[in-house]
């Protein structure tokens, strides 16, 4: 039915030992928690030795899935799609998630900060994909939607400032990337 | 990476810093009581929800009672005005969303959500819609339908997207309701917000996907209009190729509708769209080289991108193209070769397998050298892909068997897991089977391998194979040492296998018999029962003092002949056999082949990795067919099976009964094997038979048929019809077929069938037996040598006009298909834009007559194709027959 609409099968955020920080599965490909854990383990071990700390995302293919991934500090970001999916769509979702987490955590992207702000990370996952369908890919918009709704009164002003300066930073980064290409 | 000094202690007690350390479900559920406080502490409540979500995210499950309690408590939080808390409440409800049978829960939460849906806050509206659509059922949906329709055209893009995406989900469960929204969705397609347009387009297409005309209209209006986001553009490309697929080419001009649009997308600014368009073009059915060129050009540029994802996408697409249009990809070979050393192993593997597919004979050696360096540092799963690619390459260029076989034997000696070693062994076995010249070196490599093989399974397989092939070589005695070494050095399983192999040599090579006896006698003192038993049996049988049969041939048949009962049946019979005075009687085992469940169909959507190279599996279907046919008494005396066709479908996909047919050709007979599958769970079919009308196949006379006793749901079975035809002649005919059976109703709850059935029949599609069915595809190593040695005695040459053809390549493949012969030396591929082409074919015609064919094609301006056909064979009559096939085709 949905084979013509791009579908995200899961988004995983694991730590440097492959343990869950936050995960979201959007399809029934992995019906039980045990199967999910096994998948996470295999994704983690198969990508562990690769160099995914560069600016662009890395990509791997196994078990009939395509996985794009990116690491920073002790966090590993993964997005899985079917083997017929357009790799660059998956990479766009990954980049949106990655950058949005960066904005939310004010560039302190590590496991500890992520767990301390788990509510925001979960909201962020909720804003990116709904039931496998891509909702939003712009990091700024995702972060804005996740953060602004968590009305922690004291953080409000600084966070919105943060968002603007972050927006500028990512804009600069985008510019640099397009020049490098 | 160096950590700051201060953090050293922190690292050791890293866990201390998790805010969720020591978290327990029980205590969190206790904490959730704060949801019931009259004065809600929004912050505290948010924290508790986060903890609950953390538990769920870690895989913790709530019992039904726990979930219900949490759910009711959470609904209380709708009283709070805190937006942050509300957002967490939405998330929580989605995570523990009640099923629609929990009416009470649904009703409670629905009223709160409906209030939010009409709120002034956009965030509330968007989220309330998403949550509500998640838990709603048909009746509720009609109540909120009005709001959803409004939301779709809401000016806030977040609200509109929420409604549209929810619509996509709801279409699965309540299509008739969602279809009523198409006016609003149509309006949303024109939205200025990029993602709203994307979501609206996806929903509109799903609503109309069964209406070809509507989809075509949608595509044609959007390809002219403006599409705002890359994602929407990708969707449009997918829909465009769907329209192209369904409409087919414009027969006059050869142009496809909307192809211009796909081509224009290759110049889009977003890489995502370019890849999507390039892939769509390469996947068009019957894509021409003119259409391919622009797509290949952009993919080639992408091969040297700095981003791994783009390189991967490009090489993966080219890899697929290489399977069908190897010549189109050869231009990229230089860029592809530099990817062999790519850090990303998925990319490197794809590059190698692509090169193996597109490479020509002269580049094989250089390529093998590059791969050898690469093999040591990739994972086994990638190595297997490479091994399979090398196997197909070797079958394509048999002359290169030496270097490819050497490569295989080298990697066989290196470290590797079972699956990898098995893939290599399978490849060597296939090469030995298909390339006669590779046989002796191949067997030698296998012998060397078992000298130091840690896998019992592989050792026994190889020993069995040696027993079959070894005695037929020029010097069988040289294998004995390797085999007997196994008897001395290995575990019992391998020793027993080695004993059987020795006995085979003894029985097939008279000269070796005395020496084999000596070796077998030594095995009589083995510590293992099975080994001793086998040795005893073989010594007695080979010495001729046995009660089985009188002639030497009977003994061989008894020892090494094929088992003429299906193994599964033998197993069940042995299990039900209770030891008694009565000895077990193998002739009492039923020979009826039990229907095998369709394993391929049942695997839940899992496909093999798509870059795996398809090649024939290690067991040939012909062996299996031979066994199957010889188990049917009426058919077993037709002599040697000459050829079995690939299955031909006689029903459309997804009909009640799926039937395909395999044509088995014997010298004087033809047997149709109808493979039937019953796809209706409520039916049991009995006495299934296909009645075949031969009024358009005069030379065929039906002599036997074997009905299928029962055909239960989803377990395929076979029925056979046999015909007599003139001996050794390639008789043609057209057959119309009718499936007849007795149908019985099955109670799905008990699985029991009713006693009385009804006669019924089902029309199948017609079936043809053509000349190609009498031709075996058999490759020759060196066509020129074979051609020269055949000599011009029985040569027949003639010229033919083929009329207007689409292209030279199309004409070549049409003639190959008519003849059903094996293209040699890659001459079935026609280079782009060439005006003439020579194609070499080889095969064996019925009656075991070798046939070689040389086809010279020429094409002139208005696509008129002419062909010169030269046939050499061992029999002039056959050469004439080949010409007749072409003349009538």
Weakly predicted, low-confidence segments of chain B = 1-15, 595-619
| Total helical elements of chain A | 6
Kindly report the oligomeric state of this protein: heterodimer
Give the overall pLDDT of chain B as a whole number: 83
Predict the CATH topology of chain A: Beta-Lactamase
> What number of domains of chain A?
1
Element pattern of chain A in H and E: EEHEEEHHHEEHH
Largest sheet data of chain A: 5 strands, antiparallel
Strand percentage of chain B? 5-15%
- Rounded to an integer in angstroms, the radius of gyration calculated over CA atoms of chain A is 16 Å
Structural class by helix and strand composition of chain B: alpha+beta
**Helix percent band of chain B:** 40-55%
Architecture of the domain at 634-769 in chain B, CATH level 2?
A: Sandwich
Main sheet overview of chain B: 6 strands, antiparallel
* Percent of residues in helices of chain A: 40-55%
Beta-strand share of residues of chain A: 15-25%
Proper CATH architecture of chain A: 2-Layer Sandwich
